[in-house]
Each structure stands twice: as structure tokens, then as C-alpha cells.
Design a protein that fits this description.
Elements: H1 4-20, H2 26-34, E1 55-56, E2 62-63, H3 66-76, E3 83-87, H4 93-99, E4 104-109, H5 112-124, E5 130-134, E6 147-152, H6 161-165, E7 167-177, E8 184-192, E9 195-204
The structure holds S-adenosyl-L-homocysteine (SAH).
Family: Belongs to the methyltransferase superfamily. L-isoaspartyl/D-aspartyl protein methyltransferase family.
Function: Catalyzes the methyl esterification of L-isoaspartyl residues in peptides and proteins that result from spontaneous decomposition of normal L-aspartyl and L-asparaginyl residues. It plays a role in the repair and/or degradation of damaged proteins.
Enzyme class: transferase
Amino acid sequence: MIDDSEEATRKMQFLFALRSRGVTDQRVLSAMEKIDRGLFVRGLFAERAYEDMPLPIACGQTISQPSVVGLMTQALEVTPRDKVLEVGTGSGYQAAILSQLARRVYTVDRHRRLVREAREAFDALNLVNITAFTADGSFGLPDQAPFDRILVTAAAEDPPGPLLAQLKIGGIMVLPVGQSDAVQSLIRVRRHEGGFEYDELRPVRFVPLVEGLARDE
Ligand code: SAH
């Protein structure tokens, strides 16, 4: 049983870790203060939910480190009018943060179980502007395209063509690129009238973007 003052201290430490790692956007910090990461980490690791560390989740996947979630969200420059696509629902934590900043969030994962569990968390928090689908996100979500913002939370060797095609003019996509077992870079892509502008942000390490739906259920 955790009392109120313990919880307040924990929250303060969580926000302090985010700030000290470069998450400075106040809207992003408020969203991360509001959404309890503890609801997205199940089982053994639940008690470590407030540490700035990636943690294992079901299906052999990982929930990203909070500061990386913050930095990626910040780099995406989400506005309240935006329709956002996230590829790689995982625990649903990143999508929940995006839901606080955007008009509408679509999130897809190739694991049916992760999508089901993420939906339960969205329902519990009454996050009604998120829709989660089981799908291969490397093809985007053609029925809902185009998107103002796209966030990919699994690493591809190159930005997938369908995702570039589903980004609006003026839109932004943030994604890790590189081989899964080598160094990856977080990239920001801005789409202009005349083409795409690429920006390398920082080294990161994500699970790989894998083709096709998982056959684990
Ligand atoms: N954003 C998540 C963490 C993602 S881990 C969170 O906040 O918890 C990366 C996720 O990408 C994994 O759940 C994995 O199943 C998913 N993934 C990998 N390849 C995919 C693909 N082609 N389409 C959709 N999801 C994919």
C-alpha cells in the first residue's frame, strides 16, 4: 500500500528524470504526469513502472523508457488538431500519451494480445480518442490516411514507403531506423510540397519492425 506522500515523491522523481534527460515541452510533461505508466506494465515488473527504464511486456516486446517516449513525443510536435498514427502499440503507453495531445490517435500492433490488453487500459482510463487495430503497421492504415503525424516505435532499416505516402504535406514522422542488433538512429521526417526533409535526432535502441501479423494466438 502506497500512501499519498510516497506517491507524490515518486511522481516528482519521475518528472525530474524526464526533465533531466531533455523532455522540456510542458504539454508533453503534463500528459506524462497525468497518464500512470503503472497501468501499462503488468506482472513482475509493475513495481518498476516509475523508473526511467524500458521494461518487458507480453509477447517478448518492451515498453519504451519514459524519457524516450517523452523525447519522441516532443519531436513529433503534436497539435490538438492532429490525427496521429502510431505503429507499434505494445503496452499502449505511448498511444495514451499521444491521446492527450492530439485530436485522434490510431495505433496498430502485429500482436493481437497486445492490442487487446492496450484497449483494456484505454477503456479503464476512458481514453475515447484512441482506436487500436491488429495490423502490420509497415503498410500504415490506408483507410484512415493521410495523417498529420506518424510515430513508429519499432526499428526499420529505412522509413517504410507506405508510411511516407500516408503522411500529409506539412506532416511529421518520427521513427527509429537501422538494423535491429546494431545502432539505430531516431529520425524526424518532415513532408513538404517538394519532398521529404530528414533530420537525425539521437541514437536509440528499439525492437525490430517485423513483417506480417504474429501467429502467437
Ligand atoms: N509503443 C510501445 C512500445 C512498442 S515496442 C509502448 O508504448 O509500449 C514495439 C512494438 O512494435 C511491439 O509491440 C511489436 O509487436 C510492434 N511491431 C513490430 N513490428 C510491427 C509491425 N510490422 N506492425 C505493427 N506492429 C509491429
